[in-house]
Design goal:
19 helices; mainly alpha
């Protein structure tokens, strides 16, 4: 970097934000992930309580995920077009959360009471409402970073808060289910387990949403919507194709992230967790305890990842920790294949070598996965800045919607894939239960779903990132150009004033 470039960087006036704003806004993702963590068990409710077969449930979950993806471009277009008195993002957050809360309450409290002839249609209707609400709130999570900050030193920090709240959402839900609800209601065949879980999630998610609205409140204004020097932009459907065709970074990021998402959907599936912790380890309580025990060391690794992103750029950090995730996942596969994992106990009175080994590998793996899963969110904002630099259009809704659309399609494929594999190994009428015996078939299929599929997904991600060009140097160039445009506009306005 030459002297002139360094001087230009010093002159950049970033749209900075405070840590408390970033923290509160990340609670929007916490609300979404609370619902996602709860909906991991919806297949068990549909099968065990509503009475739908495993094949039907698998097909239904896949179809609804596809519908979820279709709604994203619509929500993205509406968000890009909206600029009302209540801002661009806050209405989507509130309406989306209310739709999810109403639909989930009715789903888990009333579906199994509906006449058998209409039960499936009723369930699909409520699930569709949930998806619309989820889409509205999700598009904000994928695009709100653009107004919070454009400072490359600040954007990676959101990864820390997202990782913290996602771990709390998934880990807390798993702990609540495996260590409280399952023992209290004796497994997944009691309707009360789903109803208590639903009420808990609805209350917590609403609180998180309100706090997230407060976090983005001061930034959800016109002056932060892209180039504030321009009049309100008009976005047409035809503009979307031109943006998709010319914005290569968002295409590559989508490919990298969707292969990760497919893998994450597979290894985090509720049935895979039951087979791993309940059948292989013969102690399903570990599914909840593991998140609590490893939370602090995982955050240490996430903090290290953020430092790497701040110094070397977000792309570099994502590639590095994706490679590390592959390494640690291979180690986990070997441990599960050759170790006596039924001897793993999270108790100081029963501590042994395999427990220590599992703990260390899990922490390293989970920390790396947290970075690979969450670093892409601030990178979407980079792609949005690139589009402003390239075409002058501020379309965070489109960026978030494109990302979510492909993301959810691959989530649907992941859900269908797990369902197909379970059917092939004999779970055609019911899902795996914690009381099932361990067989060689169950062991190797668990390792395949929990370890091998993620490795393949991450390899595909690394290949895609080779063609993603928004590294630290490129993003610095983009921010310099944005600052130059603002400075030029201010000078023109001064000349026009008599």
């Amino acid at each position: 970097m030459n002297r002139k470039e360094k001087e230009e960087i010093k002159e950049i006036t970033y749209n900075n934000t405070s840590l408390w704003q970033m923290c509160l806004f990340s609670l929007n993702n916490a609300a979404l992930n609370l619902y996602l963590a709860m909906m991991l068990y919806v297949s068990y409710y549909a099968n065990s309580i509503a009475g739908f077969g495993v094949v039907l449930v698998s097909m239904l979950m896949t179809a609804m995920e596809v519908f979820d993806g279709i709604t994203d471009p619509i929500a993205g277009f509406l968000l890009d077009s909206l600029e009302g008195r209540f801002g661009k993002f806050r209405p989507f957050m509130l309406v989306g959360n209310l739709l999810m809360s109403v639909s989930c309450f009715l789903m888990f409290f009333t579906t199994h009471h509906v006449n058998v002839e209409f039960r499936l249609l009723y369930f699909i209707f409520l699930y569709a409402i949930f998806i619309v609400g989820f889409t509205l709130q999700t598009v904000v999570g994928k695009s709100g970073q653009t107004v919070l900050t454009d400072n490359p030193a600040q954007r990676p920090i959101s990864t820390y808060f997202d990782s913290l709240f996602i771990m709390a959402s998934y880990g807390g839900t798993a702990l609540y289910v495996s260590n409280y609800l399952v023992p209290k209601y004796n497994g997944f065949t009691n309707e009360k387990i789903y109803q208590v879980l639903a009420v808990t999630v609805i209350i917590l998610a609403f609180i998180c949403t309100v706090l997230a609205i407060i976090g983005i409140w001061n930034k959800d204004r016109k002056e932060y919507f892209g180039d504030s020097s321009k009049k309100k932009q008009k976005i047409f459907i035809k503009d979307y194709w031109e943006i998709i065709r010319c914005n290569r970074p968002i295409r590559m990021l989508i490919i990298a992230a969707c292969t990760d998402k497919f893998a994450a959907t597979v290894y985090s599936h509720a049935a895979v967790g039951v087979m791993l912790f309940g059948i292989m380890m013969q102690d399903y309580s570990i599914a909840g305890l593991i998140g609590l025990v490893t939370a602090l060391p995982t955050l240490v690794i996430v903090t290290l990842g953020i430092k790497v992103a701040q110094k070397f750029g977000q792309k570099h950090a994502l590639v590095l920790f994706t490679n590390l995730a592959i390494l640690f996942q291979i180690m986990m596969a070997i441990l599960l294949a050759v170790g006596n994992v039924n001897q793993i106990h999270f108790s100081f009175h029963h501590m042994n070598g395999i427990t220590v080994a599992f703990f260390i590998i899990f922490v390293l793996l989970n920390g790396s996965k947290s970075i690979t899963n969450n670093m892409v969110v601030p990178m979407i904002a980079d792609c949005s800045d690139y589009e402003i630099y390239r075409s002058g259009k501020y379309v965070p809704g489109l960026m978030g919607a494109m990302f979510s659309f492909i993301d959810k399609i691959f989530t649907a494929l992941g859900t269908a894939f797990v369902g197909l594999v379970l059917i092939l190994i004999g779970y055609g009428k019911r899902l795996p239960q914690i009381s099932d015996p361990l067989t060689g078939k169950v062991k190797w299929i668990t390792i395949f779903l929990y370890c091998i599929i993620p490795i393949l997904g991450w390899v595909c991600s690394i290949i895609a990132l080779k063609f993603y060009k928004l590294d630290k140097a490129t993003m610095t160039k983009i921010q310099v150009e944005k600052a130059h445009r603002k400075k030029t506009h201010r000078l023109k306005r001064r000349k026009q004033v008599p």
